[in-house]
Amino acid sequence: MSTTMVDPATANAPETALANRARFASLVQRQGALAIFVVVVAVASVSFDTFASQGNITGIAVQASFLAMLALGMTFVIMTGGIDLSVGSVFALGGVLAAWGAQHGTLVAFVLPLAVCGAIGLVQGLIIARGGLPPFIVTLAGLLFARGLLLLLSDEGATTYKVPRGSSFRELAQGELLGIPYPVVLVVVFFAIGGLVLHRTSYGASVLAIGGQEDAADLMGLPVVRTKVLTYVASALLAGFGGVMIASYTSSGVTILGVGTELEAIAAVVLGGTLLTGGAGTVLGTLVGVLLLQVIKNVINQVGSLDSDWQSVVSGTILLLVVTLQRALTRGDRA
Amino acid sequence: MTQHSSAAAAAAVGAVGAVGVGDPVLQTVGVTKSFGGVHALKGVDFELRAGEIHTLVGENGAGKSTLIKVLTGVYTPDGGEVRYAGETVHFRRPADAQHVGISTIYQEVNLVPLLSVARNIFLGREPRRFGLIDVRAMNKRARELMAELGIDIDVTAELGRLGLGSQQMVALARAMSVDSRVVIMDEPTSSLETAEVETLFRVARGLRDRGVGLVFVSHRLDELWELCDRVTILRDGEWVHTEPMSEMTRLDLVSKMLGRDVEEVRAEGATEFGSSHRQAGEPALVVSGLEVANRLHGVDLTVRPGEVVGLAGLLGSGRSETVKAVYGALKARSGEITVAGRKVRTGSVRGALASGVALLSEDRKAEGIVPDLSVRDNIALAVLPRMSRAGVVSEARIDALVDTFMKRLRIKASSPDQKVRELSGGNQQKVLIARWLATEPTVFLLDEPTRGIDVGAKAEVQGLIDELADQGLAVVLISSEMDELVEGADRIVVLHDGHVQAELDSTDLSSSELLAALAGDRERDSRPASQAPNQAPTQTEGQHA
Ligand SMILES: Nc1ncnc2c1ncn2[C@@H]1O[C@H](COP(=O)(O)OP(=O)(O)OP(=O)(O)O)[C@@H](O)[C@H]1O
Ligand SMILES: [Mg+2]
């Protein structure tokens, strides 16, 4: 007969050790991009004198702020297990509408793009959540629709609407608060709110539950349809607002903007540790993902001899690296 | 018990007319429900009274879960009506039923694996502070609830990391965290150990005494007499019988449920396993020093051809982990596994399969079943390599095989081509068993093989295990039903905290003796760590050598 004794020291240890390991893995999942970000920034600061200059850093932050808005909405969408391919086009549409609207006053410059973009999000959300159609297809249609609308408005891009000189609308992206450009301030505020919404509201809880297990969320009585619709509306609104910001920043409605930006947003979200299948992630991670992508662009621009096409090559490689890292560290972890 | 109900839910509960103890609180009248050509419910009348525990009984596929889903707004009935507190209601989604005070534990654990235990308990009705979720209060309440249920887990841990039994207890905590008029539990005990079942019963009785109406479903028939006040029997989607539990004999119940004569059922007896098997020759499976990080600390196990070895232990003792590690689904840190004299690479499912090891896992939803494939394809999945010659699959042979198993295990499906997703819970389980049996393994690891299976089919499965052992198959059996373990196994290995603690010869072991052995285990655990004895357990050894 074989017998073994209870080891008092380890009687409760397995559970704690397991939890610790789980915490570590999820830390890596969330902060893998942060580690790479820190390394890239450190190397760049040493290699290029100009990198760490205040002007360059502010530039990076402002440049990143537009993508950040799209990526914030995308984070919520992906968290529900969905995808929003329309945000690049909606972003551009928002910009053109804002520039056009600015000619009729600052209020119009805000309200018009948000109303139109919000409506696009609402329609997409309703079709996805009520109709049960795949988000990929629905938002692909949204992408084409928004881009088409934009081209119609701008006569195939021939007309560029200018924000009138002296319009207070320019202040939105060109003004500063205590030396920090407004777009950067807005991003910080929006992400803070986003984090609170995701982790501390019942809407956020529903988002996570739906992404984790949609059937279960439904059986638990969570408002699945409402949550999804809201999420697509929020995503379109944030993309539209990003457009408003860039119209103010460039003082015009640039029609060629936003092509492929939806993919950049998705990359940022995934870099930030959000599971592409939904159910887990953080908005802070997304912000790090956005910054990482922007820093890479900036660094490659600093290397005068490198073609800017290298930006995508490097971004793609890093994306693959981070995702592989996350995967390796979380695998075999679940019993 | 923690009372937590959002203002809206409380208002909704209050809005419905008062229901006194003994009055009907939830009813169906002539409810029908069809899925395509399958008539799952054919005019069912059901009445739940306030302050009673009412069990729904029927074979796998009789329509119990479907009735529950109609009662709770998951399905809208095709005909007939649902009444709540005397008034006709039309629930359009589960949320509607929950808002008026019906909480439900559905058959498969329906929680979100990626979220924490506490989050799962309170999803949709989290405690708030200044309009925001109060995470600290939420975790505290969750901790209290789990403590009340006697479950020691970290409530901030991801739910998906817990075993199925613990997950079921979390589902129970969720159901009891809200103030309800009606609590419905569809096979809540199927993955629970005796101690957890007792806790669940205690909670259920407490609710009943406060005037709550409970619906309870279980294929462990003994539980029904222990807990329930009335029984409603369904057969093939039809209402058959309703009676107080105390006036019903087991024979009566089984015969009504199967639709057969009492005499006929009596003649068949309590079926189950035959006597012990002849074990001969070299061991089919030898496991030595198996270690899995944090789970197993050196497990040794030997199974001879024709032998059924049972694994016993409490929740978290490492039974499922042991078979998973043998199967290669859990990475072993160290240890050796030998099958029929040949060493098997650890941590490789392919390696294990190739050497003839098959595992029927406890969590059929997460592992194993492919819900969108047909019954036929699910069964044939594992035998395809064997059934094909030069890459060409013999359709006729597969059809014959599938047909045999469907008949033998009484798999209730409209045809072999029906999607497994659409089968009742018990029938899905049978499909999985059929799949592995079809592979004709050398070593068969069975983790809760009769979980959620009705009495008739249970006997069939047990008989099949017996028959296979007689033919020389080596079987490792895990079951939380003591009778099944004691009668089914020739030898029982008791695990504790990832160690083999004792080995018992089960020839003349009674289930209560086994229980006592396990209970001794629990007692030792609850002592302060400093006093935990460092010697071999006394109860478990010495009885049989
Ligand atoms: N979504 C569906 N589509 C098609 N058929 C279904 C569906 N859901 C249930 N059925 C069928 O309805 C019948 C009743 O199933 P139900 O799940 O209610 O059985 P049950 O009594 O709960 O059985 P078990 O004890 O195995 O859980 C079965 O024949 C099943 O195949
Ligand atoms: Mg069922």
Q: What's the structural domain tally of chain A?
A: 1
Give the helix tally of chain A: 13
The secondary-structure element order of chain A is HHHHHHEEHHHHHHH
Strand tally of chain B is: 24
- CATH topology-level name of chain A: ABC transporter involved in vitamin B12 uptake, BtuC
Q: Would you report the number of β strands of chain A? A: 2
- Major sheet of chain B: order of its strands? 6-9-10-3-11-12
Taking the sheet with the most strands of chain A, its summary is: 2 strands, antiparallel
Number of helices of chain B: 19
* CATH-derived architecture of chain A: Orthogonal Bundle
Which regions of chain B contain 5 or more consecutive residues with pLDDT less than 50?
1-16, 523-545
Helix-strand category of chain A:
mainly alpha
Describe the structure.
The complex is a heterodimer of chains A (335) and B (545). Chain A is an all-alpha fold and 335 residues long. Helices cover 71% and strands 1% of the residues of chain A. Chain A has a single domain (54-334), classed as ABC transporter involved in vitamin B12 uptake, BtuC, CATH 1.10.3470. Chain A has a two-stranded antiparallel ribbon. In chain A, a hairpin with a 2-residue loop joins strand 1 (176-177) and strand 2 (180-181). Chain A is globular and about 55 Å long. Chain B is an alpha/beta fold and 545 residues long. In chain B, strand 19 (388-389) and strand 20 form a beta hairpin. In chain B, helix 9 packs across helix 10 (262-268), helix 15 packs across helix 16 and helix 18 crosses helix 19. The longest helix of chain B is centred in the middle third of the chain and has 16 residues, at 194-209. Chain B starts with 6 loop residues before the first helix and ends in a 19-residue tail after the last helix. The chains are: A mainly alpha (335), B alpha/beta (545). At the A-B interface, helix 1, helix 7, helix 8 and helix 9 of A face helix 3, strand 8, strand 14 and strand 24 of B.
